[in-house]
Amino acid sequence: MRSLSIGESLLRSLGLPTRPVGWRLRGLAPPGSGTYLGRTGRLGGWLEMPSQNRTSSDEENLRRISMAKSTCVRFVSSLVFLIMTALAPERARADVLADVQAQLEKAQKLYSAGNYRGACKAYKRADELAQGKSSPSLIGLSDCLYIQDNDAVKSLVAARQALAVAATPDERTKATEALGLALLRQPGEASWTEAVSLFKGQVDSSGGAEGQGGLLSALLALHRDQEAAEILQSLRKQGLTEDDIQQHVLDTVEYHGPREDTRRFDDFNERLLRLDPNAPLRVGGGVSRPQIIRSVKPLMPSKARLQPGLNATVILETIIDAQGNVRFVKVLKPQPYGLTEAAVDSVKAWTFHPATLNGKPVAVWYILTVSFHRE
User: What does pTM read for this prediction?
Assistant: First the structure.
């Protein structure tokens, strides 16, 4: 059985026939034809009816048909309005997500350029736009609250929220790391114990690919050195080379508490060295700075020579080993025109008097800057 169209349904509800008898379906009537034009029962064409044959009943029917047409138009308009209204929140949400992403990209660029204050403003703006539901924004905000505002408590709150709203495996991994570090910054063993549990879960869920460094840091903070040593022994049994263990595990172990607590800082460093003599420490407390013996001036790349008035600085985080050699280089602030690569190549040839702890040479993390100038 054929279903009724919208127009037919409206006509039937008004008591009109859906196909009026004796009416002929035409196109537009020619001028002066003496005919009356009205909509068909199906609202799809024009009805032609000689004016001399119209009765009062016909007039009423045509009037009601006109009303049906108007009702149909209003119905369709309302339907379109409802559809557009329903779609509006989705469009608005897409706009907000785009704005959040723009602020995150801005924050990352500012951070890479060394403008930490500007980066923090962008992270805060991204969090405001996302109404606390963007994990990357909250991770950045957590770091800012600790580094810029020196507020470890609010930093922890932001990190917890970042993990709670993490929407992807990558976001959960980064949020877990952020929360673990925020816990290690807190005073007291309760927070450090929670960090151990958090990082153990990350290690287990990733098959050992994530969280090892954080777990070792938390165990050392709790003086659970034997457990930390057993983890390293287990990694060696799994076939990891010493270089792999050094680069992916030990290089990520560090003291996360307040640097002004030099007693705790030095105690952590001494126990880390007992765990592995090659583990890099952070300068501070009883750990002295390495001293440059020989630096190599970087070569100015050809692209950079074409830039008049060039004034740029590359910032690098390095590991200076116990022999005074640069063992590892990480770029913190890159520069264009091949300057970053030139800076990295340069510092790899530098040599140092190594840092010391209690008079003994030790490996340390150390930040180096390489400047380029052209008149």
Answer: 0.64
